[in-house]
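CHAIN AND CONFORMATION:

***
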Amino acid sequence: MNILRTSAVVAAIGLTLAGCVARENPSSQRGDDDFPTATAEETTSAEDTAEGGTTTEGECGFGPDQSGSEPSVGLPPDEGPVDATTLSLTTSAGPLTIQLDAERAPCTVQSMVFLAGEGFFDGTNCHRLTTSEGLRVLQCGDPAGNGSGGPGYVVPDEFPTDLPPSADGSSVTYPRGTVAMANAGPGTTGSQFFLVYADSTLPPEYTVFGTLDEASLATLDQVAAAGVAPGGNSPQDGAPVTPVTIESAEAA
């Protein structure tokens, strides 16, 4: 989340979600420490992109990221909304089932279904747990396992426009059960995503593409209750004590 920005400044905002790597890495996705605050112009552009949710064939325009390397699994077929409605993750901590929202984020769902079908997530670790006040999420989807990795291509931003405002009106609330994409700023969404286990306050700069069912939230609650392992960014931000390895991911 840039969270989940894929790189670094959780303390600065107290909420960034992507990774813990310096933002010089253009392919990294934000991390809790990195939530760069988008300018008004950037936010407006992102919202304009997200409006409608009616992407049709050829409109996603998936393309290589700024790393200059070829996408490790190629580019997703840009054929319009997919039929899959769920993304099931078999993990070392228990099953996690995501109800996909293709109406809200059609390009993101296309990408996630494609990556699951290519086995991209298999064997990857959920590398970051955040337990701070206002930001309680588990971040996954990084093949590098440190917040810097991605699929080698960029997914169009489909930022939410319908989340409730935070108490002070400066951000929005990502409700418990939300599943959203991490990033390193506008135009950098890749494969990293975060699972919200308690209402979290963030800028509306992270694409929401699904929700967790109650059984999945129970699994996530257990992981969160065990806390953060020593040696992370802070006692409230780092690798989870309970390892969460995605053994397989299947869309249906």
Q: What stands out?
A: Residues 137 and 196 are 5 Å apart (CA to CA). The domain at 82-181+192-251 is CATH 2.40.100.10 (Cyclophilin). The radius of gyration is 16 Å.
